Structures are given as C-alpha cells and as structure tokens.
Amino acid sequence: MLFNSFQNEVLEAGCDEAGRGCYAGPVFAAAVILPEDFFHEKLNDSKQVQEKDRDVLRSVIEKEAISFAVASVSVSEIDRINILKASIKAMHLAIRALKQKPAFLAIDGNRFTPYPSTRHICVIKGDGKYANIAAASILAKTYRDEHMRSLHLDYPRYDWASNKGYGTAFHREAIKAYGLCEHHRKSFNINPETPTLF
C-alpha cells in the first residue's frame, strides 16, 4: 500500500526519473502533485507495472493531478555533466514547470541537489512507498518510452522500441555490428562485450 505523500502540512510534489542506466537516449524526469484523496489500485513503481497499465495510469494521473510536469536532458548534456547531474537537472526542470509550486519535494533515490527555497527529502525506493513519487515514475517512464519508440523509427537496427535504450543482449550485439550512433551516451564508455545489470 502506498502512502499518498511524505507529509501533508504543505503542498508536496513527488519526483522521479527514468532512463538513468540506459546506453542511449535522454534521461526524463517528472514532478507530480496529487490530491489528498488520490487512489488507483494499479499505481506502483513503474518498473512493477505492466506497459498497458502504465499507459492507463498516465491518463489518470494527467487528468486528476493538481499539477504535473515532465522534462528531459539530452544525451549531449548527459555526456557533458554526467548522468547523475543530468538526472537531477531533469527533476529541477520538471519542478520548475509545475503550474502550482510545491513547498516540499519527495525525491526518489538518495541523491538530490536542493531546489531553491523548497524543502525536500530523498527516499530510497520511494516509488514503491509514496503515490506522488510512483505517479512521477509512471509519467517519466511513459514519456521516455514514447520518445525511444520515435527514435526507433530512424534507428531500427538497435530495437529501441523494445529495449528503450537499455543494454540488452540484442542492443549490445547491434552495437558490435553497427557501432554507436548520435543517440548513444559516449561518456558511458559502452563495451558491448560486457553484460549489463539493467
């Protein structure tokens, strides 16, 4: 069972990212402010939710959220500043884009750079504990998956429609055969011979 938010004294946004461990594509992040009575039985960490249910949840969240925003940081920026800083930057961009400004942030994970004038807490595996973080994980994941499917149209050899840029066996074999393209993260020093944890 998910708690709706970490605290209920002030307006709170949940934040999460998607695509941090991928070989290719931008990193996405979302920030979501849910109403106090929000509930959906299928809402959970996006990695625990089937794709068809994530798409349903995305529509529900976008309809019922008090405010939500999704942002991304490009591969070139990831390579320039590193993936951790890029993930946090994407969260900051999403928070900045919220139509209603939260006074408190619940961040998935254990690292975050404070957002100006806003208190926050980092929650390890927060997307499985708090509904607003879970909702952010659903939006970040579905928006990123949609983006990777669009990149697949120009680069079908890497099968991004299926692997979404993660280092699957097929993706690694394609890199061995065709090399890297403009959408691969060069700073990751990708070695297609090395099995990935993702």
From TrEMBL:
Q: Where is the protein found, in the record's own terms?
A: Cytoplasm
Report the record's Gene Ontology biological process terms.
Answer: DNA replication, removal of RNA primer; mismatch repair
Q: Does the keyword Manganese apply?
A: yes
What's the protein name?
Ribonuclease HII
Q: Which cofactor does it need?
A: Mg(2+); Mn(2+)
In which family does this protein belong, per the annotation? Belongs to the RNase HII family.
Q: How is the cofactor bound?
A: Manganese or magnesium. Binds 1 divalent metal ion per monomer in the absence of substrate. May bind a second metal ion after substrate binding.
Q: Which gene encodes it?
A: rnhB
State if Transmembrane helix is listed as a keyword.
no
Q: What does the protein in this record do?
A: Endonuclease that specifically degrades the RNA of RNA-DNA hybrids.
